[in-house]
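Worked example (supplementary).
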Amino acid sequence: MHHFTPIQSLIGGALLGLGAALLLLLNGRVAGISGIFSGLLLPARGEFAWRALFIAGVMCGGLLVGSLRPELFGNSLPRSNVAVVAAGILVGFGSRLANGCTSGHGLCGVSRRSTRSLAATMTFMATGIATAFLIRHAFGGAL
Amino acid sequence: MKRKVAALVAGLLFGAGLAISGLTQPSKIFGFLDVSGEFDASLLIAMVGGLAVLWVAQRIARRAGAPLFADRFPVYERTRVDRRLLGGAALFGVGWALAGICPGPALASFAFAMPAALLFVPAMATGMLAVTAWDGLRRPG
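After joint prediction of all chains, the assembly is encoded as:
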């Protein structure tokens, strides 16, 4: 069951775009979540505080909305724990190799018409769609 | 101090936007990627909203000499579309479709104690560190 939520998704998208825009225009930083988060794991000097605060903001912003509307957070997933762990490793590994994920390439990079980001976005959309197709038709929608 | 407050506020808006747009619901990611099933275009609409705001911001950045609280705007050193970029993005897409979770929603859902996110985030951190380790092995010193 999927409910198309165009107005809500447009407002949410604009809000997260605004967050990314502020980080760019105020601090001169790209709001790429994978890059900011990975920089927390082995932090360079002077690179810890702002990253930690941005990530804390993402978590608290989500929590704030979730406390008012808990249904906005998925709870059960038609996936086994093994599939979730494999997915996490692939997402972490892939985003560092590509130097960006849905936010850094898909939003920040595409909005400045970067060829690299456009290529990365089209690639992960393509393999994502192919994987979803495979899961539905070869595994019956659960894994 | 100004920069730290700005980072926190930017994060808050980003996280709230993630949840409102529907990105913290894996079912909506599945709905978007599963074009042969019950397609749900909400994520596409969220991207349009985010891109519209950022498009304006990038224009402002191009005209302004420097950000308000820092010395300069990002310098994008890499310009080539290479195997590393495309291979990484390809793996990322597979993982994204596998769990319906990407890094931003993963962190927000982790804070919300969503069971899958509690597994996903440590796995993601491991994958990230693996790239650092791999690069270190290939380029010693």
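Two points are worth noting when inspecting this output. The mean pLDDT of chain B is 94. Chain B touches chain A through 116 residues (CB under 8 Å).
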